[in-house]
Amino acid sequence: MTSPGPLAHRVPDLGSLELLLAVGRLGSLGRAARDLGITQPAASGRIRAMERQLGVALVHRSPTGSRLTEQGALVAEWARRIVEAAEAFDAGAQALRTRRDSRLRVAASLTIAEYLLPGWLIALHAARPETAVTLQAGNSAMVASRVLGGKADLGFVEGVAVLQGLDSAVIGHDWLTVVTAPSHPWARRRKPVAAAELAATQLILREEGSGTREVLDAALAPHGGLAVPLLELASTTAVKSAALSGAGPAVLSELAVGDELASHRLVAVPVADLHLARDLRAVWPRGQRPGGPGRELLALTRGGGQADLPSAEGGR
Question: Tell me: the pLDDT tens digits for 82-109?
Fold first, then answer.
């Protein structure tokens, strides 16, 4: 038997992460244990083992119940992403095992893939357990390339333009926000940052080709264009981590920073006279309207109640 790699020794098992989330949700180790169908001593042992593994205290125990420590709350945020990804993985794995009738190849830009698609794919699996779904995540340019090249049946992008050769439909809207760590001077400003000042500031940004970067480039073009980035990173998570560290201001989707804004680990910075809304679009090869599971997935993105496709927009 192959021994587990180093990551297996550093990352708690999925059951322990689910237990930590249950403690945070229910405020009691005993109730969390019952919710997961294990004994309280077993639950206590799992929490202690996880604390030893990570080297931080995760749960504060008292006669009135249990609550997550500050470190525990942070670990729980990470755990939630892992559990959601595991659920999506399980749904995808089951679809692959039941590969009888159909398949669906999906490509999605990172924000949509990370924050929206897992729920849609879980719902699709519930409706079509026989459908095998594969997902590839990348920036919007990569998604368009895969759909145009016949390597994906359906794509999801954020941005300004749709490439020639693709039809598209708006499935929702998203807003970009400028965020900083609480220690940054912008977090204490009383007046909004001017658009020209934002354009002249070195920011932590996604790479060229991402929908986030495309929208920001277009919005700041009348104000002198973007300054040379302070950091240019290839994932939303990396940009967010750099902003959390206090490296500088970043521009990210509100979907990506909602938890950090609510917990005050990041601060939203108002910007004057700048429109940072963007459309979220489904894209597919021109003239090849999605059918079967692709059509059903599109309906799920619009609330699950519409059998008809939204009107397609031609590529620009």
Answer: 999 988 888 877 665 555 447 899 999 9
CA distances from 177 to 118, 198, 241 (A): 23, 12, 15
pLDDT value of position 313 = 62
Residue with tokens 């729920």: 119
Q: Give the pLDDT confidence of 261-311 residue by residue, as tens digits.
A: 999 999 999 999 888 888 899 999 999 888 888 999 999 997 644 334 445
State in words which class domain 81-166+286-301 has: alpha beta
* Domain 174-278, CATH among 3.40.190.290, 3.40.50.20, 3.30.310.50, 3.10.310.10: 3.40.190.290
